[in-house]
Amino acid sequence: MIKTFILGLALGLLGAATLVYVTPAVDLQREQSLISVQPNQGNREVFHINLPYDRIFSGSQNGGQNNAFPRAIAWPQQQALDGSDSEIFKLRNSKDIVVGIAARISSTKEASGSFIQWMLHLPARGSIFAGMQPGVTEKGDRDGLLLAGTREFHNMSGTLQERFDTDTGTDISGRLELVASLRTSPGEAQ
Amino acid sequence: MKYLAALLSGLLCGVVLFIVGLYYNPFVGRSTVSPLAISDTDVHSMSYSAVMADSILFTNDGESISKPYPEKVAELWEPTIVDTQLLVTTILDSRGQAAGIGIKMSSPSEKTRLLKSQLLVDSVWHLYIPGQGTLAISQTENYWSYFRDIIVPAWRNSSNSWRGTWTKNMTIGPGALGMAAVTGLSGDFSGEQGEAVESLNAQAYSILQGPVAMTGTLIVAMADPTGS
Questions:
Q1: Distance separating alpha carbons of residues A162 and A160, to the nearest angstrom
Q2: Which residue of chain A has the CA closest to B109?
Q3: From the list A4, A21, A110, which residue is nearest B6 (CB)?
């Protein structure tokens, strides 16, 4: 009977270890990546934000006024933050499904020059950091460059374009579109 | 019948023994010195409060131990982001003065391996330090020790809380020597690459509200690409 017990003990140990080994502890929900291939290599992916529904957070300090959203937020009263603006949104793919979170930080009063930056975080894929041009194009769009990427976006280069459309024809007051055109660039590895 | 009972009790004991061995594995969780502590490059030391009520904003799925702050902030309930946490906080300099704003987004990593005592989280920081510039930090953190040394003892405690002194480097990658990858995005940091280590210092934790007294520290070392 002792031998049977020891056999059970070994089977229990082995079974538990096998179960933990083969069962993924983390299994993130994935949505199909809606990517189109560009003729000059690389790929293009369009994300968007429905305003105001997708806004999670907004904090800015212009002239000492607290313009935070939600209103309960205590935005730090640092003079150094004057002229800066931080916003966070839920990010959707072209099928209107939320696939990540996006943060936009900008400042107009930096001594080194004003900047606008995006951080896109797609949990199952990775993150993108992009710096935008301060001015807008004739169409009212804003162009930017990929500055850094993680995981799936590591070793990639390309552009990010920001478009704002107020004529959505729905109850959405505005649609902020982010068009990522990326290509693998082994020579620009981090 | 008695052989079946012996086999079943052996199986049960085996499973329990496996869980105990996994939990008390003596080969993991030892504190290590950050490689940046002995680096000869200039390092920036920044900190933040890891207590949600001290942050500017914290949100998650709304059903975790740490509740969103402030109360009416949008929750991340959509299936693709349901396990993601978002933190917006004031970044303090090495003297404890407000230095800027930090946004941290964290999601569980599919590279998590419980057999290796790994509870991995992929996280990214977007730091804005007025007058200096902006930084992007990407890292993989291991929360196994945090779970084993703080959350489980708090859960076992009759008051559902833990008190003590606990410090640990959370960063384990993706860079060499287990450090985070840093990219300078603008200002003085523009074009620079660097490495970073994030650590947590905990004094109190509650199962009902999450961290009660806890501080996070970011040690960042930047390398000038010109070598000057």
A1: 7
A2: A26
A3: A4
Three-class secondary structure of residue B151 per DSSP: helix
**Domain housing A44:** 33-188
CA-nearest of B90, B46, B102 to B218 is B46
Chain A residues in contact with B72 by the CB 8 A cut-off are: 70, 72
ipTM of predicted assembly, 2 dp: 0.90
- Dump pLDDT digits (tens) for A127-139: 999 999 988 888 8
The domain locations on chain B are: 40-223
What span, in angstroms and rounded, lies between the C-alpha atoms of A164 and A142?
9
Does the structure show a pLDDT above 50 at A190? no
A92, A97, A116, A119, best to mutate vs chain B, most B CBs in 10 Å: A119
Name the residue facing B128 among A9, A13, A84 (closest C-beta): A84
DSSP state at residue B69: B
Contact predicate B81/B88, CB 8 Å: no
| Residue with the two structure tokens 């023994």 | B17
**Which architecture, in CATH terms, is B40-223?**
Beta Barrel (2.40)
Tens-digit pLDDT profile for residues B20-40: 988 888 777 665 667 776 667
CA-based nearest distance A129→chain B, Å: 7
Is residue A58 assigned to a domain?
yes
Inspect the interface and report whether the beta carbons of A9 and B17 lie closer than 8 Å.
Answer: yes
Whether the Cβ atoms of residue B105 and residue B124 lie closer than 8 Å to each other: yes
Among candidate residues A158, A18, A76, the one with its CA nearest the CA of residue B57: A76
Beta bridge partners of B167: B201
